[in-house]
C-alpha cells in the first residue's frame, strides 16, 4: 500500500472524473457525492501518508519507466513516472487536499451544468496534486499544463459577467509562462544525461539529476563547467530568468500579475479559493523545486533581482489593494502582496527564509481560502462586492463580521496566526542573507516591512468602511438579502479559522516537516552555486 | 542558573500562582465568548471574578518573587536549522510588580465596568477583550525574549483596536481604532527591523543571553533605536502620539486601563527590560524624544476642552517624562513613575468616567443633550458629585506632584536622576532637565485648571439636571486607586523616593535627592500659586488644541500621498500593464487581419488569378472547338496561310 500512496492521491480524483462521465447529467446530488467521496478518500490517504512520513529527505517515492525512446545517435529519451514528497511538497499536498475538500463543499452553490463542473474540478484536483509531487520535469510539465484547461473552462463557463475576458487573459498569460518553462525544459533535456555516463547517451528529465552539476553533458548548452554567454548573461542565467518569469506569472509576481485580479473577480467562489490557495503556490513551488536547485549559481547572482521583485510585489500589491473598490479584487491584490514574501524568503538562501517561504505558502493557502470564501458569502447573497455599497455590516451580520475580522487580522500578520510565523522568518532570513553569503541586501528586508503597515491600512480601512458605522446599503440591495452565515458556510469557515490559529500558535509540527528541506535547500544552493561560479 | 536551582528557589505553589495569574485572564476571554447572548449579563460577574483570582495569584507571585533570584522557565516554541525560538517566562522584581499592578488595575477596571457598561449590547465582547488585553499585557511583562514580547506587543495593539472601536457604530470610534492600530504598526515595523538586527548580530532573542553579550555599538545603536521605534508607537511618543488623544473615543474604563495605566506604559517597561542594548548615543535620542513628548503633551493638555483629551495629553506628557528618565540612564526612576502613574492616572480616568456616567444618566432622565465631556459646559459639580470631587482632587494632586502624594516621589526620582545626568554629561543635558522642570510646572497648571473648571464656580449646562453619584461598584475602585495615590505605599518618607520599590527594581543609584526634593516641592507650590492666580484665564490656541498639527501633517504629508500612490498603481495596472497587453493583443489582431488580407488578396488572388488564367486560356482555346464545319475550315485555312508566310519568310 505504502508505495502507491501518492499515485492514489493523484488518481482518485481522475478516476472519479472518469466515473462521472457515465452519470446522468441531471442528477446534481450524484456529482456532489462523487466529488465529496473522492475528497474524503484523499483525506484518508493523506492521513496515512502523514503517518508514514518522517522528517527528512524524499519519501514515498514511486519511480516507474514511462517513456523510453531510442533516437539513435541522438541518444535515448527517457521520462519516468517519478513522484515523491519531501518537506517542500508535503505541506503543500496536505494544503491542497484540505482546500480542495473545502472547495467542493463550497461548490454546492453551483447549479448549472453540474456534470461538467464537477468533472473539471476533479481533473483539476488530480493535476494539482500531480504538480506538487512530480519529480520528473516532463511529468511535472504535463500536470502543470493539465491544470490550465480545466481552470480556463471553470472560469469561462461558470464565471461572472466579464468571464470571457478574464479567462482568455488567464489562459494566454499562463500559456506564455508555460512556453518559457518549455524552452528551459528542452534546453535541460538536451544538456543532461543519466549519471551512468555510458553509451548510449540517456537524456533524462529527472529533476534530481538536473540539480547535480556532474550530470551535464560537457560543452552542452547549459553545462555549468563551460559557461557560454549570450549578451550580458550566461545561458544558464537566461534559463534561470525564463523560469523565474514562467513561474513568476503563476505566483504572480509584479509586473506579471494583472491576470490575477481579473480572474479572481470573475471566477466563481470555489474556483477563486483553489486559484488563490493552490495554483499560485505552484509558482513558488516551481521556483523552489526547479529554478533554484538546477541553476544555483544564477540564483546567487540574480537572487537580489528575485528578492527585489518580491519586495516590489509586496508593496505594489499592497498599494493596489488599497485602491481597490471591489472586495474580491482587494483580496486578490493582497495575494500578490503576500506571495511577494515567498520570493523574498526563497531568494534569501537561508534556512529561515526558505522555511518561512514554504510556511508562507502553506499559511497563505489557508488564509486566502478563508478570505475568498468570505467574499463569496457576499457574492452569493447580493452579487455585489463593491466596498462603498456597504456600511455597518457588523450590526446586521455579527458572525460574518467576526470571521472577516479573524481572516483580515490573520492576513495582515497578527501574531497568533500562521502568517506571522512565516513573515517573521522571511524577514529574519532576508535580513541575515548577506551575512551568510546570500544574495540579498539588508535594505530589501527593511523596505519590505512597509508592507506590514500597508497591509494593516487596507484591511482596517475596509473593515471601517464595510463593517463599522451605521448599517446602510447602496446599489439596490435590501437588508433581507443579508442573513448571517448559514450552517454550510460555518462548516467551511470554522476549520480554516481553527487551522490558521493552531498553526500560528504551534508551528512546530509543520516546521519540523519543512525544516530538513529548508536547511538542505539553503545549504545546497549556496554550496553548489559557489562551486560553479568561475 | 540551572532549571534545578530555579525549582528549588520557587515552590510549586508559586508556579501555580504564576500560571493562574497569566491564564485566568485568557480563560475570562474564552468564557465570555462562550456565554450565550441571553445570559450576557453573566459576563459582568464572571470576568471580574476571574480577574480578582488573577490579582490574588499575582499578589502571591509578587510576595514570593520579591528580592528572590529571578524565576525562569523556558520551552522550545519552534526551531529552524540549529536556531531555536523559545517561549519563556522571566520574573524578576520589576516584572512581578508590573504583574501585580496590571492585574490589580485590570481587576478594578473590570469592577468599575460592571456599573459603567451596564446595559451595553456588546457586553460579552467588551469583557472578553478586556480579558484578552490583560493576558497580552501580562505576556509582555513576563516574556523572557524579544520575539515573544513582540508577539504580545502586537496582541495588545489588537485588543486596543477592538476596545477603542467597541462602539463601532460610531464613525469616530471606528476611525480612531483604525488609526491607533496603523500608527502602532508603523512603530512595530521599526521594532521588527530591530529584531532582525538582533537576530543577525546577536543570534538570539533571549534577553538574558543578549545581556551577556559585550556591548557592541556597531549594531546595538541601530538595533536599540529600531526597538525604540516600537516604543515610540506604543507609548505615544513624538511623532507617533496622535492616536492616543483619538483613542479617547473608547469607553472610559478602557482609557483608564489601556491608555493610561498599562498598555501605553509597555514601551517604558520594554525600555527597562532592554536597557542594556541601548548605547549612549541611542540613550541620547531616547532622552530627547521623551523630553519633546513631555513638553508637547503638557502644553497641548493646557488648551483641550474635552475632559478625556486633557487626560490623554497628560498621559502622553507623563510617558515622555518616563522615557526621558530612561534616556538619562535611570530605569528605576522611570519604572517608579510608571507604577505611581498607573494608579493615579487610572483614578483620574475613572473619576472622569464617573462624571460622564452621572451626567449621561441625568441627561437621559431629563432629555437634555449636550456634550458632557466638554469642560467649558461644566462647573460647580463639587456639590452634586462630592465623592468624585475628592477622588479627582486626590489623584489630581498626585499627578501634579504635590508633596505627600505618590506622584511627588516618582517625579522627584526623575528630577534627581536628571540632575545627576546633567552634572555628569554634556552641556545640552541641562536643556532636557529644564524642559522636564517646565513640564512639571505646566502639569500643575492644567491639572488645577481641570479640577477648578469642573468642580468650582457656578454650574452651567448641568444646573437643571438631577445628578447622582455613580453606584458603589464604580465608587469602590476609584477609592482604592485614590488610596494608592498617596506616598505611603511607595516610601515611608514622603520626601524621599528611595523606598522599597525604587531600591529594588533595578540597580538603583542613590542621588542624594534631599536638595532636589525641597526644590521640587517649592517649585510645585509656586506652580500651584500661579495656577490659582491665573484661574480665570483661558488659553485658546489652535496650535495647542490641535496637538501641534502633527495629525494634520501626517494626513496631508503621508496619508494623502500614500492614497494617491495607491491610485497611481491602480492606474498603472489598468493603463500601462493591461494597456500594454491590450495593445499587444490589438497589434496581433491587426497583424492577423493583415495576413488574412494578404492570404485573401495576394495568395488567394494569385491562386485565383492562376486558375482564372487557365480558365480563360481554356475557354479561348475551347472557342476553337465551335463544332461548326465552316469554322474548322476557316481555322485550317488561317493556319496554312500563317504556315506559308512563316516558311517563306
Explained architecture:
- The complex is a heterodimer of chains A (534) and B (649).
- In chain A, 69% of the residues lie in helices and 6% in strands.
- Chain A is mostly helical.
- In chain A, the strands form three sheets. A three-stranded mixed sheet of chain A has the order 1-2-3. A two-stranded antiparallel sheet of chain A has the order 4-5.
- In chain A, helix 1 (5-20) packs antiparallel against helix 4, helix 3 (89-106) runs antiparallel to helix 10 (269-294) and helix 16 (418-432) runs parallel beside helix 19 (487-505).
- Chain A is globular, with a radius of gyration of 23 Å.
- Chain B has helices at residues 3-9, 12-34, 43-65, 93-116, 123-142, 146-164, 171-202, 207-211, 217-234, 243-246, 252-261, 266-273, 280-302, 307-327, 331-366, 386-400, 406-424, 429-455, 472-483, 514-533, 542-545, 550-622, 629-648; strands spanning 71-80, 83-91.
- Among the domains of chain B are: 279-456 and 470-545, no CATH class; 557-648.
- Helix content of chain B is 71%, strand content 3%.
- Chain B has a two-stranded antiparallel sheet.
- Chain B is elongated.
- Chain B has 23 helices and two strands.
- At the A-B interface, helix 11, helix 13, helix 16, helix 17 and helix 18 of A face strand 1, helix 6, helix 7 and helix 22 of B.
| Tally of contiguous helical segments of chain A | 20
**Which structural class is indicated by helix and strand composition of chain B?**
mainly alpha
The major sheet of chain B is characterized as: 2 strands, antiparallel
**How far is the first residue's CA from the last residue's CA of chain A?**
47 Å
Overall shape of chain B: elongated
Distance between the termini of chain B: 132 Å
The profile of the biggest β sheet of chain A is: 3 strands, mixed
Rg for CA atoms of chain A: 23 Å
Low-confidence stretches of chain B: 1-6
> In oligomeric terms, what are we looking at?
heterodimer
Q: Quote the beta fraction of chain A.
A: 5-15%
Residue share in helix of chain B? over 70%
H and E order of chain B: HHHEEHHHHHHHHHHHHHHHHHHHH
Low-confidence stretches of chain A: none
Averaged pLDDT of chain A:
91
| CA-atom Rg of chain B in angstroms | 38 Å
| Residue share in helix of chain A | 55-70%
Number of strands of chain A: 7
Number of strands of chain B: 2
Helix tally of chain B equals: 23
User: Biggest protein-protein interface?
Assistant: A-B, 55 and 50 residues
Amino acid at each position: 500500500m505504502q508505495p502507491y500512496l501518492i499515485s492514489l492521491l493523484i488518481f482518485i480524483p481522475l478516476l472519479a472524473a472518469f466515473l462521472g462521465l457515465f452519470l446522468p447529467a441531471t442528477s446534481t446530488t450524484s456529482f456532489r457525492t462523487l466529488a465529496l467521496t473522492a475528497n474524503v478518500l484523499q483525506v484518508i490517504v493523506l492521513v496515512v501518508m502523514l503517518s508514514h512520513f518522517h522528517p527528512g529527505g524524499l519519501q514515498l517515492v514511486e519511480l516507474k519507466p514511462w517513456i523510453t525512446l531510442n533516437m539513435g545517435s541522438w541518444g535515448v529519451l527517457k521520462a519516468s513516472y517519478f513522484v515523491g514528497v519531501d518537506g517542500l511538497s508535503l505541506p503543500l499536498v496536505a494544503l491542497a487536499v484540505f482546500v480542495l475538500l473545502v472547495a467542493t463543499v463550497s461548490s454546492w452553490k453551483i447549479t448549472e451544468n453540474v456534470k461538467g463542473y464537477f468533472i473539471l474540478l476533479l481533473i483539476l484536483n488530480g493535476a494539482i496534486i500531480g504538480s506538487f509531487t512530480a519529480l520528473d520535469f516532463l511529468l511535472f510539465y504535463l500536470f502543470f499544463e493539465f491544470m490550465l484547461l480545466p481552470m480556463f473552462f471553470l472560469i469561462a463557463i461558470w464565471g461572472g459577467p466579464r468571464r470571457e475576458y478574464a479567462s482568455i487573459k488567464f489562459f494566454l498569460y499562463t500559456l506564455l509562462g508555460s512556453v518559457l518553462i518549455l524552452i528551459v525544459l528542452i534546453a535541460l533535456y538536451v544538456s543532461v544525461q543519466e549519471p551512468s555516463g555510458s553509451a548510449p547517451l540517456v537524456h533524462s528529465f529527472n529533476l534530481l539529476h538536473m540539480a547535480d552539476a556532474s550530470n551535464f553533458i560537457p560543452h552542452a548548452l547549459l553545462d555549468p563547467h563551460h559557461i557560454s554567454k549570450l549578451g550580458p548573461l550566461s545561458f544558464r542565467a537566461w534559463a534561470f530568468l525564463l523560469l523565474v518569469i514562467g513561474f513568476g506569472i503563476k505566483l504572480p509576481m509584479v509586473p506579471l500579475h494583472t491576470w490575477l485580479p481579473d480572474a479572481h473577480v470573475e471566477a466563481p467562489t470555489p474556483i477563486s479559493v483553489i486559484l488563490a490557495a493552490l495554483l499560485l503556490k505552484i509558482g513558488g513551488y516551481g521556483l523552489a523545486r526547479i529554478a533554484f536547485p538546477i541553476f544555483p549559481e544564477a540564483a546567487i547572482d540574480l537572487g537580489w533581482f528575485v528578492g527585489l521583485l518580491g519586495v516590489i510585489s509586496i508593496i505594489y500589491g499592497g498599494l493596489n489593494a488599497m485602491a481597490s473598490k471591489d472586495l474580491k479584487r482587494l483580496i486578490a491584490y493582497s495575494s500578490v502582496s503576500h506571495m511577494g514574501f515567498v520570493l523574498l524568503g526563497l531568494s534569501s538562501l537561508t534556512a529561515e527564509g526558505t522555511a518561512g517561504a514554504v510556511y508562507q505558502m502553506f499559511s497563505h493557502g489557508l488564509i486566502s481560502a478563508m478570505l475568498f470564501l468570505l467574499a463569496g458569502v457576499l457574492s452569493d447573497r447580493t452579487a455585489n462586492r463593491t466596498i462603498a455599497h456597504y456600511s455597518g455590516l457588523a450590526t446586521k451580520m455579527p458572525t460574518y463580521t467576526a470571521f472577516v475580522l479573524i481572516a483580515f487580522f490573520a492576513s495582515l500578520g497578527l501574531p497568533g496566526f500562521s502568517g506571522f510565523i512565516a513573515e517573521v522568518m522571511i524577514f529574519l532570513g532576508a535580513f541575515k542573507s548577506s551575512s551568510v553569503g546570500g544574495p540579498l541586501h539588508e535594505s530589501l528586508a527593511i523596505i519590505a516591512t512597509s508592507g506590514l503597515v500597508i497591509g494593516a491600512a487596507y484591511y482596517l480601512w475596509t473593515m471601517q468602511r464595510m463593517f463599522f458605522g451605521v448599517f446602510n446599503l447602496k446599489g439596490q440591495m435590501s437588508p433581507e438579502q443579508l442573513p448571517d452565515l448559514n450552517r454550510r458556510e460555518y462548516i467551511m469557515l470554522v476549520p480554516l479559522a481553527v487551522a490558521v490559529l493552531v498553526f500560528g500558535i504551534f508551528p512546530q509540527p509543520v516546521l519540523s516537516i519543512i525544516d530538513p528541506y529548508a536547511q538542505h535547500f539553503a545549504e545546497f544552493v549556496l554550496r553548489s552555486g559557489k562551486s560553479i561560479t568561475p | 542558573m540551572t532549571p534545578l536551582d530555579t525549582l528549588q528557589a520557587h515552590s510549586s505553589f508559586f508556579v501555580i500562582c504564576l500560571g493562574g495569574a497569566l491564564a485566568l485572564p485568557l480563560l475570562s476571554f474564552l468564557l465570555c465568548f462562550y456565554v450565550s447572548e441571553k445570559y450576557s449579563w453573566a459576563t459582568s460577574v464572571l470576568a471580574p471574578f476571574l480577574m480578582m483570582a488573577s490579582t490574588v495569584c499575582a499578589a502571591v507571585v509578587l510576595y514570593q518573587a520579591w528580592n528572590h533570584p529571578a524565576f525562569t522557565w523556558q520551552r522550545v516554541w519552534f526551531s529552524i536549522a540549529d536556531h531555536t525560538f523559545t517561549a519563556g517566562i522571566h520574573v524578576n522584581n520589576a516584572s512581578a510588580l508590573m504583574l501585580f499592578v496590571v492585574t490589580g488595575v485590570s481587576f478594578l477596571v473590570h469592577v468599575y465596568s460592571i456599573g459603567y457598561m451596564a446595559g451595553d449590547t456588546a457586553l460579552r465582547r467588551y469583557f472578553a477583550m478586556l480579558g484578552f488585553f490583560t493576558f497580552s499585557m501580562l505576556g509582555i511583562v513576563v516574556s523572557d525574549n524579544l520575539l515573544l514580547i513582540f508577539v504580545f506587543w502586537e496582541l495588545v495593539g489588537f485588543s486596543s483596536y477592538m476596545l477603542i472601536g467597541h462602539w463601532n457604530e460610531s464613525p469616530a470610534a471606528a476611525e480612531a481604532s483604525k488609526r491607533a492600530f496603523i500608527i502602532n504598526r508603523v512603530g512595530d515595523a521599526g521594532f521588527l527591523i530591530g529584531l532582525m538586527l538582533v537576530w543577525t548580530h546577536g543570534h538570539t532573542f533571549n534577553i538574558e543571553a543578549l545581556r551577556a553579550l559585550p556591548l557592541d555599538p556597531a549594531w546595538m545603536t541601530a538595533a536599540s533605536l529600531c526597538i525604540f521605534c516600537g516604543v515610540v508607537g506604543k507609548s505615544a511618543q513624538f511623532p507617533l502620539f496622535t492616536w492616543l488623544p483619538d483613542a479617547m473615543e473608547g469607553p472610559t474604563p478602557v482609557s483608564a486601563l489601556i491608555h493610561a495605566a498599562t498598555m501605553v506604559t509597555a514601551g517604558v517597561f520594554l525600555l527597562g527590560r532592554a536597557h542594556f542594548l541601548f548605547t549612549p548615543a541611542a540613550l541620547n535620542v531616547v532622552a530627547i524624544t521623551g523630553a519633546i513628548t513631555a513638553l508637547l503633551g503638557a502644553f497641548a493638555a493646557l488648551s483641550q476642552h474635552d475632559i478625556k483629551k486633557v487626560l490623554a495629553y497628560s498621559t502622553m506628557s507623563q510617558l515622555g517624562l518616563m522615557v526621558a528618565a530612561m534616556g538619562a540612564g535611570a530605569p528605576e526612576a522611570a519604572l517608579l513613575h510608571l507604577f505611581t502613574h498607573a494608579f493615579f492616572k487610572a483614578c483620574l480616568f475613572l473619576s472622569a468616567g464617573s462624571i460622564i456616567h452621572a451626567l449621561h444618566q441625568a441627561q437621559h432622565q431629563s432629555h437634555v443633550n449636550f456634550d458632557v465631556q466638554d469642560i467649558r459646559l461644566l462647573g460647580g459639580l463639587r456639590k452634586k458629585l462630592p465623592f468624585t470631587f475628592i477622588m479627582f482632587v486626590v489623584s489630581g494632586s498626585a499627578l501634579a506632584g504635590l508633596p505627600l502624594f505618590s506622584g511627588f516621589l516618582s517625579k522627584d526620582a526623575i528630577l534627581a536622576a536628571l540632575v545627576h545626568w546633567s552634572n555628569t554629561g554634556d552641556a545640552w543635558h541641562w536643556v532636557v532637565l529644564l524642559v522636564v522642570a517646565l513640564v512639571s510646572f505646566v502639569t500643575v497648571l492644567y491639572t488645577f485648571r481641570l479640577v477648578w473648571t469642573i468642580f468650582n464656580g457656578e454650574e452651567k449646562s448641568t444646573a437643571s439636571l438631577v445628578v447622582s453619584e455613580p453606584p458603589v461598584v464604580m465608587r469602590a475602585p476609584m477609592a482604592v486607586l485614590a488610596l494608592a495615590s498617596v506616598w505611603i505605599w511607595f516610601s515611608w518618607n514622603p520626601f524621599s523616593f528611595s523606598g522599597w520599590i525604587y531600591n529594588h527594581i533595578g540597580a538603583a543609584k542613590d542621588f542624594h535627592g534631599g536638595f532636589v526634593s525641597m526644590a521640587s516641592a517649592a517649585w510645585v507650590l509656586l506652580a500651584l500659586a500661579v495656577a490659582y492666580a491665573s484661574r480665570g484665564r483661558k488659553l485658546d490656541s489652535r496650535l495647542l488644541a490641535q496637538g501641534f498639527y502633527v495629525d494634520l501633517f501626517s494626513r496631508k504629508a503621508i496619508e494623502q500621498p500614500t492614497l494617491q500612490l495607491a491610485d497611481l498603481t491602480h492606474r498603472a495596472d489598468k493603463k500601462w500593464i493591461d494597456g500594454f497587453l491590450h495593445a499587444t493583443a490589438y497589434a496581433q489582431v491587426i497583424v492577423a487581419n493583415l495576413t488574412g488580407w494578404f492570404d485573401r488578396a495576394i495568395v488567394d488572388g494569385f491562386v485565383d488569378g492562376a486558375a482564372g488564367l487557365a480558365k480563360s486560356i481554356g475557354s479561348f482555346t475551347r472557342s476553337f472547338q465551335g463544332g461548326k464545319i465552316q469554322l474548322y475550315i476557316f481555322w485550317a485555312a488561317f493556319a496554312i496561310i500563317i504556315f506559308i508566310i512563316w516558311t517563306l519568310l
